[in-house]
Each structure stands twice: as structure tokens, then as C-alpha cells.
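User: quick one, sequence for these C-alpha cells?
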């Protein structure tokens, strides 16, 4: 059975290209790149070859230039400077690398737009050498919960129904489970919640346009947004999510994930029953047999 197509990826690429022309908003990407470089600095090993998978700018490649021998940029559409660097034109959902050929794969704010995230993670794990590392960040969790809430309530009130306007985001626990399902060893996930304040919801929507992050859902409504619905959504946003100074809040949850291609040198969990000390002794607690109730 084929995977459902959630995102109109050609439209997404068009919007990213348009954002690059009008002047992109890159503050989230720049934050992700700095954080990725910091996380990579804690890994006590060198990488001769890395793949930057789908990151919309070169921020990640610049941030980790002193830690990696060579970085190959992989994306369906590459910027005009592709001749000045290593690059492969390929879709993030169809990697062209042979198994066990790459030491490090990084990605910043791109994987939330793939239609088959489990399949993409599996391809990454296969492309990694034994003990190779995946380090990536994607939008997820409660990102743009304020905008989603405002539009949903406005459409329900004005139009009597709700249409998908903001992309569905992966949950932190789901991402961890997908890493395990793809066969990664030592999977780790965590979340960096960024709250950005704007003068108005329209300023937020303008920034999303400059990120190339407009509505690219296949099931999006194809008719123009009604003015009454937009007006009511802006009112709801201001009523529900504004601070005392009138500025509104926007939440961006950046989910970090890392995992290693399995290798015999990696730490293994102890086998059940192999412990040499009892938990009750370590906690200085009295141990009760099964079915026995502790006294009060």
C-alpha cells in the first residue's frame, strides 16, 4: 500500500524559491544551525563526509565547516551557488546513496515536509556507515498552535466548517518511535520551544511567507480565503494570544532527533535479571513480595 501524499512538494519548492527572491526570514534556520553545531561539538569524533539533507539555506554547512571534511548538499532544487560546492540534486524522499557510504547526515527544518518520514529515516539509516550519525531538527509538536486555533474557530463560526490551513506536525514521542522503527541505535529526541512575538498576526503570516512555509497541503481549500473569515481569525488571535503590550505570540516547537547506525562497539542495555544489586537496597526501602501490601 502506497503512503498518503500529504504535501504538494512542487508547490512547496515554488514557495521556497519565491521566499528566497523576496528576502527570506531565516532566524529559525540560523538558530537551528548554531544549535546543531553545538550538539555536534559534543560528539568526540571526526567525520570525513557528511550529507546536508534538504536544509533550505547553507547555514548548517557554514556552521559545521570546521568539524567535517566535506559536506554534500542534497535537495531537489539547489540555490544558484551549487557550482561552488558539493551538491546532489535529489529528492529527500529518494536518496541516491549506496548503503553504508556516509558517516554523518544532518538536516534542519526540512523533514517536516516529507510525505513518508518513516521511509526517509529508513533510507538515511541504510546510507549511514556502521556507527554513523543522524542529527536533525524538524518543526513539530505545538508549532503555530495559536494560528491553527484562530483559523479553526473563525472558520467554524463564519463558514460552518474547518479546512486544513496549517500542516500537521509530528509529536515528540512519535519521532522517537520512528527512529527505533527505522533501526537506529541509541535514539534521542528533545524539543526546543521558541516563542516569537509579533506586532500583529499579519506580521506573523508575512514571516511565514518569507520562510516559504505557506499552506502546501494537498487537501488545502483551493478557493480564496473569505475576508470575513480572515478578519475574525485576526480578532480571535488578538483576543486569545496577545500580551499586555498588544503584541501576539507564535509558538515554534523545534524537535531534535539523533540516532546512530548500529555497531558492535556501541553500548548495549543489560539483559533482564543481570543486575548485581537490588533497587530496594539502593533506595534503602523495604521490599514486599507480590501481593503483599505495605503497612501504613
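Assistant:
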Amino acid at each position: 500500500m502506497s503512503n498518503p501524499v500529504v504535501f504538494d512538494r512542487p508547490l512547496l519548492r515554488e514557495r521556497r524559491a519565491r521566499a528566497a527572491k523576496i528576502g527570506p526570514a531565516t532566524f529559525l534556520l540560523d538558530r537551528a544551525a548554531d544549535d546543531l553545531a553545538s550538539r555536534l561539538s559534543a560528539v568526540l569524533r571526526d567525520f570525513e563526509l557528511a550529507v546536508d539533507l534538504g536544509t533550505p539555506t547553507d547555514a548548517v554547512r557554514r556552521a559545521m565547516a570546521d568539524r567535517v571534511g566535506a559536506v554534500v548538499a542534497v535537495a531537489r532544487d539547489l540555490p544558484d551557488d551549487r557550482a561552488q560546492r558539493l551538491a546532489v540534486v535529489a529528492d529527500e524522499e529518494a536518496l541516491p546513496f549506496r548503503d553504508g557510504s556516509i558517516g554523518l547526515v544532518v538536516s534542519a527544518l526540512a523533514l517536516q515536509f516529507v510525505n513518508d518520514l518513516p521511509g526517509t529515516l529508513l533510507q538515511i539509516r541504510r546510507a549511514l556507515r556502521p556507527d554513523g550519525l543522524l542529527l536533525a531538527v524538524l518543526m513539530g509538536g505545538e508549532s503555530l498552535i495559536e494560528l491553527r486555533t484562530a483559523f479553526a474557530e473563525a472558520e467554524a463560526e463564519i463558514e460552518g466548517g474547518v479546512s486544513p490551513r496549517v500542516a500537521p506536525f509530528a509529536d515528540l514521542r512519535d519521532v522517537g518511535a520512528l527512529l527505533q522503527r527505522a533501526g537506529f541505535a541509541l535514539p534521542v529526541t528533545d524539543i526546543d520551544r521558541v516563542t516569537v512575538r509579533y506586532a500583529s498576526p499579519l506580521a506573523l503570516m508575512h514571516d511565514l511567507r518569507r520562510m516559504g512555509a505557506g499552506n502546501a497541503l494537498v487537501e488545502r481549500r483551493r478557493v480564496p480565503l473569505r475576508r470575513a473569515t480572515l478578519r475574525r481569525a485576526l480578532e480571535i488571535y488578538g483576543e486569545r494570544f496577545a500580551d499586555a503590550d498588544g503584541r501576539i505570540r507564535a509558538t515554534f516547537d523545534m524537535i531534535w532527533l539523533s540516532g546512530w547506525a548500529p555497531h558492535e562497539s556501541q553500548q548495549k542495555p543489560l539483559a533482564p535479571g543481570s543486575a548485581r544489586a537490588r533497587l530496594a537496597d539502593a533506595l534503602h526501602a523495604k521490599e514486599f513480595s507480590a501481593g503483599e501490601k505495605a503497612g501504613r
